[in-house]
Amino acid sequence: MSKISVNGKIQDVNTPISIIDLITQNNVAQPSMVSIQLNGQFVNRDDYENTQISEGDEVDFLYFMGGGQ
Amino acid sequence: MDFTEVQIQRYSRHILLQDVGVEGQEKINNGKVLIVGAGGLGAPIALYLAAAGVGTIGIIDGDVVDLSNLQRQVIHFTPDVNKPKVISSKEKINMINSDVKVITYYKLLTAENALEIIQNYDFVVDGTDNFPVKFLINDACVIAKKPFSHGGILRFDGQTLTYVPGSACYRCLFHSPPPPNVVPTCSQAGVLGAIAGMLGTIQAAEVLKYLTGVGDLLTNRILTFNAKTMEFRTIKTKHNDYCPVCGSHPTVTGLIDYEQAVCEIESLRKNK
């Protein structure tokens, strides 16, 4: 088990874990509506499967918000 | 500019602020700000910028006031239903502060008119309700080197970031628009009315900070909040070298009119 930070909260996960698996594990209903930052750096959608997360990493899920009117 | 007695009284609470003062208030009065969308976000933004005395406020919106807007679009009143939102907004701004010159555009911002319109302003505020225009504002402002504030709300959540030339833009974080209909908008998913005020006033504060040069803008950061938990987070972001519009090999070099979700177009039609 490794400790990582997801949206500012510590999570215990079995590493290595890919971004796509982390998204599934966090029950994101629509993966296409989330943009991922790993340690403050944007991760390209095409790299979700082959980007591995390790101990101490900070992951942020940024959701598309289209409203305003 | 020399302030009259009446103006000194009107703006006294700004002038008293050590960081703003007469000098800062003058900058506000000389400021030119474009608000895209006179709805949930645009309403509080316009009201606060008008009260603050922003010299020129441009408002672009192609819609008319609908009864379902009044739950959150606080610049529009019940008798304004069916009135163009830009006219309704202008009337209220004039009543709040006659120092403000209001320029209205009763149309949608498009790839064709965006650069021409925004060039007349110091700062652009995104108060729109759809991704095609959010990306259009971003691209136009990056291309024209114009600072802007992005805002998005949905259900109980809000997010905002400020862009100045060189900082992380909206596309640095959100590469390209989601497929139409995948991400719900307020008209499909609903929104708690006060959320619009919470986010819009943050955007208005960013405008005033930019005009006066006070404080640290929300650049290279994105602020998100959830009103159910009342938790606010500021996430650090970085300029993305692979960004399609401001990266080192941009693929977006001109403006694009992305496809609108069908339901949004239908709701626009219904409102006409």
Write the layout of secondary structure elements.
The complex is a heterodimer of chains A (69) and B (272).
Chain A: E1 2-6, E2 9-13, E3 17-18, H1 19-25, E4 34-38, E5 41-42, E6 52-53, E7 58-63
Parallel strand pairs in A: 1-7
Antiparallel strand pairs in A: 1-2, 3-6, 4-5, 4-7
Chain B: H1 5-10, H2 12-15, H3 21-30, E1 32-36, H4 42-52, E2 56-60, H5 85-96, E3 101-105, H6 114-118, E4 123-126, H7 131-144, E5 148-154, E6 157-163, H8 170-173, H9 186-189, H10 193-212, E7 221-226, E8 231-236, H11 262-271
Parallel strand pairs in B: 1-2, 1-4, 2-3, 4-5
Antiparallel strand pairs in B: 5-6, 6-7, 7-8
Number of strands of chain A: 7
Largest sheet of chain B: 8 strands, mixed
Query: Which fold name is given in CATH as the topology of chain A?
Result: Ubiquitin-like (UB roll)
Give the distance, in angstroms, between the N- and C-terminal Cα atoms of chain B: 43 Å
What letter string, H or E per element, gives the SSE order of chain B?
HHHEHEHEHEHEEHHHEEH
* Count of helical regions of chain A: 1
Strand content of chain A: 35-45%
Number of beta-strand segments of chain B: 8
Average pLDDT value of chain B? 93
Oligomer: heterodimer
Whole-number tally of structural domains of chain A: 1
> What order do the strands of the largest sheet of chain A run in, or round the barrel if closed?
2-1-7-4-5
